[in-house]
DNA sequence: CTTGGAACTGAACACCTGTTCAGATAGCCT
DNA sequence: AGGCTATCTGAACAGGTGTTCAGTTCCAAG
């Protein structure tokens, strides 16, 4: 056997990535074999190498695309705008973006240690760029006298940790819906920076 | 060759656990082999099985002992005490405990998915017991009118995520010392629940 | 209807995996 | 001095790992 009916590179490629993502998130990069990924898509193991040069690149590519999308979709910095409104927008964006991509968020955090040092450096730099955007908002609010923050850097990390944590417990169809969650987190964030 | 000079079960045992902990935290459970662990301690692979029935139990044992210590050392619930003081004590305890055991905290969170379902259930139950302690404090403060909390359950999860996040960025000898970190986190927590 | 090549298979490679166990050794007790 | 046993080795087992590649099949264009 070889090429199968109706198969196309531009269909199989995304399917491979989706399967890898699912399995990496479920069981961890190191615990998932190329044969398992291939099996999920209905391929032999060898066919995967038409879509990725190797397993490491497959992981890196998933993480890199995710971080890129995160940075692109983040509302542009608007230094003239009200810091409080900017902080609210950031919190809302973060929660929505993360709730929509639980698997990607999960591996982008959990699988950092399975990246080669070079790949790790790339992802880490992107993460810092994202954090810097929040830090800038907190700085602006502090300077404008709208926030009362004891330590901007620490508060940045604390807020991101708090917001990202939403993925560890939120389940669709539970007690709260997305809007409810967004509102409560916005509330927590505003209070934590002394804006309420 | 066989038994070596000065070797004792009660010395080698802890050394095996320490090596496993270090390596699991560094590279992940699935990515670490029994031979690597044994090598770290200067043993052949077979000798490990004098100290653990298998690899899975080694991981579970590390996580279980960690969670047990967490629950034991957590200041006892004191429902008559001031909720604000109890919350401060909880935050301080959490930060200190976590800063003192970064590797254990790390694997207790990261390696949950590498536990068998039965082992996972045990650890998860312990984690919930810990979270319930914070939830109880928040409830008490809300009822006493000391806190203003929109959703106790969500706030519990958010605060724990925020506090646990300290391990992702804190490095000894950095800009802030432990006391400084504790103080700022206490501040953030109190503000988030509307106690300031 | 032929042909070019994209899409894929499956065997093979060299090596690693967790775990078992017969055998070897070193220190303690008598 | 002799023996006992806790401690450990290293080979062996059955199977899995990422990756390569010669060969096969099917589709589409000429």
UniProtKB/TrEMBL annotation, chains A, B:
<keyword id="KW-0238">DNA-binding</keyword>
<dbReference type="Pfam" id="PF17932">
    <property type="entry name" value="TetR_C_24"/>
</dbReference>
<dbReference type="GO" id="GO:0003700">
    <property type="term" value="F:DNA-binding transcription factor activity"/>
</dbReference>
<dbReference type="InterPro" id="IPR001647">
    <property type="entry name" value="HTH_TetR"/>
</dbReference>
<dbReference type="GO" id="GO:0000976">
    <property type="term" value="F:transcription cis-regulatory region binding"/>
</dbReference>
<dbReference type="InterPro" id="IPR036271">
    <property type="entry name" value="Tet_transcr_reg_TetR-rel_C_sf"/>
</dbReference>
<dbReference type="InterPro" id="IPR041490">
    <property type="entry name" value="KstR2_TetR_C"/>
</dbReference>
<dbReference type="InterPro" id="IPR050109">
    <property type="entry name" value="HTH-type_TetR-like_transc_reg"/>
</dbReference>
<dbReference type="InterPro" id="IPR009057">
    <property type="entry name" value="Homeodomain-like_sf"/>
</dbReference>
<dbReference type="Pfam" id="PF00440">
    <property type="entry name" value="TetR_N"/>
</dbReference>
<protein>
    <submittedName>
        <fullName>TetR family transcriptional regulator</fullName>
    </submittedName>
</protein>
């Amino acid at each position: 056997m070889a090429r199968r009916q109706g198969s196309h590179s531009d269909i199989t490629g995304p399917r491979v990535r989706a399967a890898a993502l699912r399995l990496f998130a479920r069981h961890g990069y190191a615990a998932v074999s190329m044969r398992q990924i291939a099996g999920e898509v209905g391929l032999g193991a060898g066919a995967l190498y038409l879509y990725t040069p190797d397993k490491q690149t497959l992981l890196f590519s998933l993480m890199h695309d995710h971080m890129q999308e995160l940075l692109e979709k983040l509302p542009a910095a608007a230094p003239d705008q009200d810091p409080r409104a900017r902080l609210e927008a950031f919190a809302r964006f973060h929660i929505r973006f993360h709730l929509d991509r639980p698997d990607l968020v999960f591996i982008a955090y959990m699988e950092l240690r399975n990246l080669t040092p070079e790949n790790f450096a790339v992802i880490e730099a992107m993460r810092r760029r994202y954090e810097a955007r929040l830090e800038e908002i907190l700085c602006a609010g502090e300077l404008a006298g709208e926030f009362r923050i004891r330590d901007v850097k620490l508060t940045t990390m604390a807020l991101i940790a708090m917001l990202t944590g939403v993925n560890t417990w939120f389940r669709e169809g539970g007690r709260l819906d997305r809007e409810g969650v967004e509102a409560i987190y916005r509330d927590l964030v505003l209070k934590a920076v002394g804006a309420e």
